[in-house]
C-alpha cells in the first residue's frame, strides 16, 4: 500500500470507530508499518486539516472528531454475512482486497452485539468446492424452527419441522443442514427442493454442527468468515 492510499485508509479506519480511539501500535499492526510511520502519517493528516487529535491515557490513541464522521451504518447480522458471501465473487479479480477493506469498515461501524451475532451466523455457513456460489436463498440465515414442505430426488413430498444448524454452499446448490424432527437425526436439505417454508416462533435448543456431521466425502469445506 502506498502512502497516499494508507493516509486515506487511516482516516477511514478512524472514521469507522469514532469517537473511540485507535492506538499508534494498533494502527501500525493494521497497516503493517512502524509506529513511527503512523505518527508521521497522523502528523501529515493534521497539517492538511483533517480533524485528528490524540487522546491521552492507557486506553487512549488517535481519534477523529465526531462532528466530521458519517452517520452510523446499521447493518443487520444477516446483511453482514450476505456481504461476506457476495465478496466470494471477487475472488480472482483485482478488486478482492478493496472488497475486504470495505467489509472491514462496515463491520467496524456495527454495534458490538450485532458483530457477535454476525460472526456466530457466519460460523454456520460452509463453502464447498471453490468457484462462484449461487445466490443465497431466503431460507438461509433463519435461526428459528422451520416448517418445510420438501421434495426428495424421487419427487416424494413430505412436511417436516426442522432446527437449522448450518448451511453448505456449492457452485450449483445450497444445502440447509438441520435436525429433522421427523427422522430424529441430522439431515441435509437441498434448498431448491424446499417447496415452501414457514418460520415458527420457537427458538430451537442449541446444537453445535460438528465437521463430521456434514458427512462430505470429497472436496474442501471452508467456513465463511467476515474477513471476506
General description of the model:
By secondary structure, the chain is of the alpha+beta class. The chain has two domains: 3-68, Winged helix-like DNA-binding domain superfamily/Winged helix DNA-binding domain (Arc Repressor Mutant, subunit A); 71-228, no CATH class. It is built from seven helices and nine strands, in the order αααββαααββββββαβ. It has helices at residues 3-17, 24-31, 35-47, 77-86, 96-108, 112-122, 211-214, and strands spanning 52-55, 61-64, 125-128, 146-151, 157-169, 174-180, 185-190, 194-199, 221-223. Strands 3, 4, 5, 6, 7, 8 and 9 form a seven-stranded mixed beta sheet that branches. α2 packs across α3 and α4 packs across α6. The protein is elongated, with a radius of gyration of 22 Å. The model has no long low-confidence stretch (mean pLDDT 84). This is HTH domain-containing protein.
Please describe the structure with a list of short key phrases separated by commas or semicolons.
228 residues; alpha+beta; Arc Repressor Mutant, subunit A; seven-stranded mixed sheet; two-stranded antiparallel sheet; 7 helices; elongated
Element-by-element helix/strand order = HHHEEHHHEEEEEEHE
The DSSP helix count reads 7
- Helical fraction equals 25-40%
- Tell me the number of structural domains: 2
The end-to-end distance, rounded to whole angstroms, is 19 Å
**Cα shape:** elongated
Domain Helix-turn-helix type: 6-62
InterPro entries: CBASS_pafABC_assoc_protein, HTH_11, WH-like_DNA-bd_sf, WH_DNA-bd_sf, WYL_dom
Domain WYL: 143-199
Protein name: HTH domain-containing protein
